[in-house]
Amino acid sequence: MGCSAAHEVNPSYNTLAAGALPTALSEISGHPNTKWGGSVMAALQIKNIPTGAGDDLKIDASYSKGDTKNVISTSAASPSFAMFGGTGRACAYQSIGFGATSDAVFLPIAAGGTGDLKLVEAYGIRGAFNHNWDPYWSTSLFGSASAVRYNGAVGDLTTAKGQYCAVYAASNGAKSADFSCNPDFNVCQIGVVTRWTPVKNLTFSAEVQYFRLDQAFTGTNTLAAAAPKPTTVYEYKDQNTVSFNVRAQRNF
Prior knowledge:
Blueprint: E1 2-9, E2 16-17, E3 21-22, H1 26-29, E4 35-47, E5 56-65, E6 81-85, E7 94-99, E8 104-105, E9 118-119, E10 121-132, E11 137-149, H2 160-171, E12 185-199, E13 202-215, E14 220-223, E15 232-236, E16 239-250
Parallel strand pairs: 7-15
Antiparallel strand pairs: 1-4, 2-3, 4-5, 5-10, 6-7, 8-9, 10-11, 11-12, 12-13, 13-16, 14-15
């Protein structure tokens, strides 16, 4: 099975206040022209496999340009990632990993940019295998890997990466000598869930999941406070976490 989608990327104003709020100068400052992006996805499901009755294997792959939510998304929206962890670097308070999910970036001509939208690319793959132990018990192994790419090079203000890093470097604090900006990132996760259905429409489940954020910033930076975190020095570093969830579901 395959599908495709078109997405209109509609930009905001060139001039905005903190929190992306409009000001009295927003309308007269103008904004970039709209660009069209899109995405494609191909999926495969294999049934009647020899591991057991009712077992199946599902896999899909997707690619987008200017339509990132069709590669990385939740039921609500496209998530951006900001994860904290430990650090072994002297003078750093903690480590942090960023993953900014967007459809496009732009830098106005007045700020040194080209004034047009630079579409962001993303691609990913997901899969799941479900095994039925008996009519009451089943287990699924699932996982995914996705990547977001801001094309171009740092210092090249005609590209998405160059424009992103120009704004990021100007809006943050004191940086270490080995600081480098790179908004590209990868996310991957793998998990297993086991379900018990003692009677129809009642299911108990337990799930363990591992998640990793592979980010590309390096060095340290003095970042502004974001409650409950203080204004202090943070080391840029890949992050990971493990979660465990139990659930009882009754369908009526």
